[in-house]
Amino acid sequence: MKKLFEKALCLTFCLSAASMCAAPALAAYPDRPVTVTVPTAPGGTVDIVARIIAEQFAKTLGQPFVVNNRAGAGGVVGTQFMAREPGDGYSLMVTANSNQLIVPWVYKSAKFDPIKDFVPIAALGIVPNVLCVHPSFPAKDLKGFIAEVKAHPDKYQYASAGSGTLNHLLGEMLDEQGGMKLQHVPYKGVAPAMTDVMGNQIPMVFASLPSALEAVKGGKLRELGVSSLQRSPLLPGVPAIAEEIPGFSGDLWVALYAPKGTSPAVVKQLYEAVKLAMASTDVQQRFEKLGVTVMHDGPAELAKRQEVEFQRWKQIVQSSGATVD
Length: 325
Prior knowledge:
Helices cover 44% and strands 18% of the residues. By secondary structure, the chain is an alpha/beta fold.
């Protein structure tokens, strides 16, 4: 019995010594606050979605996820910043397809590669844009709008969230596919653009449905058409622009990225947190009220989606000639 006890004691000592000599275990991720950069101004769809997801991540992962808006140059400022961040999981980005996939073709100075510089984690939600005008605009519906603008080339301006953003390119598409001639006025985000349209400083804007919904319902903006191929359930009486201009389409989708070099283990953990967030009844209801449709793309699906769309927007930008030095 004594020998058996001595052997057991020796085994315990050896195991303890081995564990002490082994490399220390890595701290569980995350063990400190995480910054979520949004390359657009506060108040737009990307910002709203980012804050909903950050709130859910904080609950799931037990650390604050702090949203940091770095707007400017159609998303170039924030995205270039993120391209220089370390891939350690503590600096993430929630952005839109326009900022990520259109801007590099529009801005000659955009020094980032959306495919090589970032790791896709998950697509979060997709929404149509709404063509809105000030209530004093002479046309009352989409058909009347098209006739009015075509009858007065160069008379009307449209606001956008910045050169190279989706709501800029949608205006360019109206010109090209609808035979119009509008003047583009870029802003630093959709919120300030909408503010000037509501103040009748500029007549029209393409705004994402979540950004425009409250102003539309409050009568501060008049909605004329949506950019998706089908009508939105939240605005069933508003036609798709494609009903008057066949083939016109351009949805905004929002996704979560990390800088290149982020470990697959962290990407997997964040994607699992996204799935939990999207399964939440609270998130689903909040998205539904905003007009955002939940997306389910994981890292591989998002990578494929962005590669296809990156080339699509290249063709549209080159055709429109929308470039910024």
